[in-house]
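Q: F-box domain-containing protein, please. Structure only.
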Amino acid sequence: MSFCETEILMGDKMETSDNGYDMPMEVLIEILIHLPVNSLIRFTIVCKSWLNLIRDDPQFALRHYLTRTRPSSSYTLMDNVDYIVDYFGKYGRSCNATTDEILRLCIYTLTVKKTFRLVKKIEYGPRLNVSMSNFCNGIMCAYVTSNRGARVLICNPAIGEVLLLPLPHNFATRGTPKLGLGFDSVNNNYKIVAAHPPSVFAGRDFWQVDVYSVRDGCWHNLNALGSLVQFSSLTSESTLNANGRILNWLGYLKYSTKPLEGLLSFDIVDEVFQEVTMPECLYPNSWRQHHILTSSGCQACLCCSSFPSSSLAKDEHFNGIDIWVLNRDNDDDEKMLWHKHFSFTFSDDAPVWPVNVWLNNHELLLHVRKQEGRTEEVYHYDHFTQQLTRTSRFGTLMNPDGYTESLISIKGLMPSSYHQPAGDEDEKDYFCFVREVGRKNNAVHWSYSFKLV
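A: Structure for F-box domain-containing protein:
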């Protein structure tokens, strides 16, 4: 019996086929949620019911994603990720296309031998300046500009879904924002946070923050900025924590007598900025630096390490890292407590600092510089086995992200009246594009054309 000879009913059981085969719907779903996205997309041609389940059922899509990223029912600090996203190389998540026609976001996987293998690329062009958000449940956001105008896009690259969003009033004249993307699980809603810092060029000495709600299909200006006003700038990219609810940044505090870095969080549900107090031992000094790590099981996760240029070789932290996590107090839900999750010391006298990506609950990527003046190399560290493995990847990964493909459709959550159609590639006005290409022969998997406004 072929697949197409079987029709699945959206009830308790499959319809009995010619050979009497019968399967409960729950069993079928339990099988499908463990399969990769590309397999499920192929299965949409089996029959209409499979198509509806895989393409149009938001509960199935979210359950599939959570099963892929959190396979264990026990507590995990970090989600499993399938891929590592290297946004724009040395430029990190924001890049201006000054010479290249096309900007490329590269997506890698780690082989069994812990080496990087390019899987695919997301390309923007031609001649666009692009600023990216973090990934959230397989979805990303991009702010693209050129001398022709600007656009905000939200995209799920796994299913080739790209949506154009309207621009807030005077958005393009404020400069490049700090973008963050999070998930409001209380209301089943995704939100984009665009924070514009004070700018001398824009004649503005205050922060401006716009929030886009996918379910509402519109932007609104955030008037109550809370602790954000205490920061002169944000020095890191947005990092997702607490199952998508909390976005964290590092930034410089305004009112300190010397440059002092603080931790700023934004609650996606309540839309509140709050400075997170760190223990004294976590505050940076002349040799210590911080990185925020993506984590699902805590409110924040900080990695404390030495600066690569530090000369304090005798300091106990010089060639090691400390991982700290912030969680709510079991006895007082309003109280937050820091604790050291683990420490790692490299056997050689060499600077070690993290790539801000966990691969799963016990695997971390590290930068290691074994000789002064030499280029750093990315290593794979297994916390359980305490094994350090070379990846043969040289150079610094600038603000990478973990990524797992998902079936989640933003279009399904957004009011249909707010959908803005894609452009016709044959029309000259639609000369900008975002597309996915494969690692071999640059074969285009999907492409979306649009115009700037």
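A: Brief note, in case it's useful. The first helix runs from residue 25 to 32.
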